Amino acid sequence: MKKMNFILQSKGGSGKSMLAYLLALKNEDNPLTYFIDFDSSVKSSTQQLKFLQGRTPARFAKMNLLDERGKIDRQRLFENLQILAQKPYEEFFLDFGAPESEQFTSLFSKDYTIEEFKQIADELNVEFIFNIVVAGGSAYLPCTNYLDNIAGLNQQNFSIIIYINEFSFQNYKSLIAEIENYAKANSGNIRGVNYFGDFDTDAAPHKNILRYISEGKGMNAYVFIEKIKIQKELQKLP
Questions:
Q1: Which domains does the chain have, with CATH numbers?
Q2: What is the three-class DSSP state of 41?
Q3: Lesser CB count within 10 Å: N end or C end of the chain?
């Protein structure tokens, strides 16, 4: 069965696009994966996934979900999901921007029930997976509120995976245990906890890696210690 990975978090700057980049880098040589930038605001994935663009067959696309009011167009979302499901790929990664992530939850409170959204996945014969990014510091509370909202709406219809942005928890290690305990207490909803983004902005190799990410460089840009570090980072991802 094909998989569609929704990368979600309504708090801007939490690390969604970095996660999308790392997942793309891990799958750089996997022609059965396809990445989509749904972010209408900063379009970070469009910049950071340059190394996938222009390939044949295609590996990347930009899609807009918002209408003239800046709201998610439900019909456009479902049409895009249908278009993607018909493409000859096995796994899709959908990077939702903060505005799109925020409005994503309203799908299940205003227009459709989560059970009806499950029916759409079943009709497309696709597994939907909600990947929720959580950052520490001042972003922790809004990030975990969003996670709790998604988990409450989900009602065990889809798998939820938590992605912890490690560097943002540098001074808040105890909060990581809090998230892990939350995941265990909600094991019916949450499939697991993964980690990414352990980059020390004061270390020279890490600075280079962050620059490569912002410039949209592929694996061939990494050398020596940078390559060792980025490979360790990719090993954390499923």
A1: 2-199 (3.40.50.300)
A2: coil
A3: N
